[in-house]
Amino acid sequence: MKLPILTTLTAALLSTTALADEIWVTNEKDDTISVIDIETMEVVRTIETGERPRGITFSKDYSVVYICASDSDAVQVMDPETGEILYDLPSGEDPEQFVLHPDNRHLYIANEDDAITTVVDTETRTVVAQIDVGIEPEGMAVSPDGKIAITTSETTNMAHWIDTETQTLFANTLVDSRPRHAEFVKDGSELWVSAEIGGTISVFDVATQTEKAKIDFEIDNIHPDRVQPVGFEFTNGDTHAFVALGPSNHVAVVNAETYEVEEYILVGRRVWHLEFNRDRSQLFTTNGVSGDVTVVDVESRKALKSIKVGRFPWGAAFRPTE
Amino acid sequence: MFNSRRACGVVFALAIGLASAARAEVAVQIHYLKQIVPAPPTLSNLDPIPEDLGLRGAELGLEDNITTGRFLGQTYSLSVTEVAPDGDFAAALRAALAETDLLVLDAQADQVTLAADLSEAADALIFNAGAADVALRDTECRANVLHTIPSYVMKADALMQFFVSRRWDEIALIAGDRAEDVAWADTLEASARKFGLRFGARKTWAFDADMRRNAAQEVPLFTQELGDYDVLLVADATDDFARYISYNTWRPRPVAGSDGLRPVAWHRVVEQWGAAQLQSRFEELAGRHMLDRDYAVWAAMRSIGEAVTRTGAADAATLRDYMLSDAFELAGFKGRPMTFRSWNGQLRQPIPLVHERALVAQAPLEGFLHQRSELDTLGLDQPESACTAFAN
Predict the structure, then answer these.
(1) Chain B residues closer than 8 Å to A194 by CB
(2) Homologous superfamily of A9-319 in CATH?
(3) Annotated domain spans of chain A
(4) ipTM over 0.95
(5) B102-106 and B26-35 beta bridge pairing
């Protein structure tokens, strides 16, 4: 759910102050999406979805939004203007998380209950491939050049490397317990994978699929068992990663060059996934247990505000409104 | 001898596009051995014990291991023996040990020690997934036995932490007259004292009346003599009379222990921490909810799987060393990594406190601290355990 950086950003912002961008948050236990107006920092719309919405991502042109409605066994395609569900995509059972290929056409979907990654062509609305992966696939990523897709499996504890040309696995690499989230960074030269129970992030060299670094987290007065990295997102230029640390209720700021943690920021309870605003000056965190979203100022690394959303907020996606 | 012997899942080896398929083939053979115990008669037959209790956990654990193993060139197979109530348990053990040195036992405490002490088991690794008896983690511990089912002390401590946090300081107790009931009651009482709670009256339930007819009349009188208290514990290990206590006590007080608020290893109401996924995988396989012993057997199978994945070995000695090392951790869907206690082989694990319809809390509760792991606030801590078999 990374937004391509717009070169005309500053100009656009200055000329369109009236247009407020939005953060869309899926509420796992309310079957809704809360739409946050970034300008006013308030929920301005609540949209009904299928059952147990989790993963959420917009098409590259923001004309539609894809939603994993896990318990409805569907990926729903919604018109973001009207909030109307246009149609469902065949998704395989229990879709939890997905990633849109850079071709803006193929969705790679983790089918949590079936140990399968399903590849769906969003234009023909057909399943292109189903790939056997480990148990409870969750984290999904695609390399910037589109050649590699990643699925992480929570119980098998692996990152599975998929060749998107042949839709087959070409490598499987072990990580620590319960891998949750994966991202390609630094022009696709590195792959980061978080392990929730292991309490680490593994950094892989993509060319060789070997681990080149492992990041540990340590927060004063919080037992290491509770420090559980899940979602993470990168600042401009991939210099720093913001890492959600689950029930420790903190977000870590990691220097992506040295792999060292620079700071921990207190947010809401059981922080889960993260999303930036347009220029990545603000970070929005979904806090599953406290049912809110914390807004963090990236520059000062301070929490600014928390915004009440639905029950068990899970995913978050940025939507520009112009 | 034993009444059934089935080979349940079998080996499949798929090398799905391994980057470095050069890894050596590892074949892991596990034997699940269950002693069938006839359930004693109880006042109500509302909740029959599933016949495949435990076995389904073994099957799910096997599936999980196979799925992981196929990416690493590792294969798993499971054989199953169910010993009839009058069967020859020792003979079944010997047959199993002739086949593999990785055993998962779903049996009573004396059978666990019998298994551990067989000369054929000297180099085996045995998992106790059925017996919660404290002695097995204490004076009767064995170096070749690891425990994935929580002990009675762990469960009792979990309850007491909850009472402390709610300031339910005064405890009364009713216990059945079976040996297991008395043991469970003694453990609860000791735990209450350990946590500084005031332990008041304790009465033995020795009625033989049919409580479906008489609970409303008998229980108020029976509990009147308990005096005042904040919470009433019921120790009824075989689920005989506990269900008839709630709402019939003389004073309006909550019930906990074997009914009401119960400490468990697993229950259908556990759904956080990805547990919903484990629940649905189990339900798809078994057509019923996952219960305590299914979970303990599954955890034993997965502990083996995790150790094989990380070490690439299949021999009991290497796996045991790894499981008892700092490197081992099992993701058990209870929100924290689970590890084995190096002094008595007990799997550290959170204890959900549940009622039939929801998770109430999960121990260890906030504020109960320990220098090593908060999970060690539950159960026999190193200084308390008389187990010496693990000392190297």
Answers:
(1) none
(2) YVTN repeat-like/Quinoprotein amine dehydrogenase (2.130.10.10)
(3) 9-319
(4) no
(5) parallel
